[in-house]
Write a structure and sequence with these properties.
Elements lengths: L5 E5 L3 H13 L3 E5 L2 H10 L4 E5 L7 H10 L6 E6 L3 H10 L3 E5 L3 H21 L6 E3 L2 E4 L4 E4 L2 E2 L4 H11 L5 E3 H9 L7 H14 L9 E4 L3 E4 L4
Parallel strand pairs: 1-2, 1-3, 3-4, 4-5
Antiparallel strand pairs: 6-7, 7-8, 8-9, 10-12, 11-12
Helix pairs in contact: 1-5, 2-3, 3-4, 6-8, 7-8
């Protein structure tokens, strides 16, 4: 049995696919490739990878739609997007659709490999490292940290790797205020990165755990500082 993680690289640029594939192979990954969105979905249907590196600008079926279909089909595989520098709106939309991270083109292949390793590690390690921690219950919200599951009432929440990491971090530190930079570093281990990533994930969490996301109660904004988990009233 091959225990090397499988990465699916989706990009219509042959050179990009080749470079990314070679760097991932050197880092210990098996690699599948796809040149368009439809091929990517067929590849996932045939063999679910451990992580997907997904370009947003794809022919016929774009990367955002591929991301949406993967998430709507309950495929929990971590997704790292490749975006151009001028595609900020698409990056934000990609995160809102459930992507876990992004790297902007032109990019450093070494940085990309680190990002891939980070989302893959986060998706795998928490159940082992945090075994024995009791679920956190806050009103109708229940967060099972060892099992990486969260639910509101009888409804289980479909959370991405980064969304769950953020929720688990906040619910265990009720009443504490964190800046976006602190959340980037303490939740995901980034000492650099776009802080709007935190804003997007907070908004997505509110849409899933708040009764009224436009008037959030559990995750409060501390203006000029950051965010605080207050819990159900």
């Amino acid at each position: 049995m091959n225990d090397r993680p499988l990465a699916l690289v989706v990009d219509d640029d042959v050179t990009v696919r080749d470079v990314v594939s070679r760097y991932l192979d050197r880092a210990g990954y098996r690699v599948d490739v796809a040149g368009d969105g439809e091929s990517a979905l067929r590849a996932v249907a045939g063999r679910v990878p451990d992580v997907v590196v997904l370009d947003l600008m794809l022919p016929r079926l774009g990367g955002l739609e591929v991301c949406r279909r993967l998430r709507s089909g309950s495929v929990g595989v971590p997704i790292v997007m490749l975006t151009a520098l001028g595609e900020e709106e698409d990056r934000v939309l990609g995160l809102e659709l459930g992507a876990d991270d992004y790297v902007t083109k032109p990019f450093s292949p070494r940085e990309l490999v680190l990002r891939v390793a980070s989302v893959l590690r986060r998706s795998r390690e928490r159940p082992v490292r945090e075994t024995g921690i009791d679920p956190v219950v806050d009103g109708a919200l229940r967060v099972d940290i060892p099992g990486r599951r969260a639910s509101v009432g009888e409804r289980e929440l479909a959370l991405t790797v980064r969304e769950f990491d953020l929720l688990a971090f906040l619910v265990r530190r009720r009443g504490q205020v964190f800046t976006r930079a602190e959340l980037l570093e303490r939740v995901w281990g980034w000492d650099f990165g776009d802080q709007s990533t935190v804003t997007v994930h907070v908004r997505r969490l509110r849409e899933k755990i708040e009764d009224d996301p436009t008037s959030p109660v559990r995750i409060a904004t501390v203006w000029g500082v950051g965010y605080r988990y207050d819990g159900a009233p």
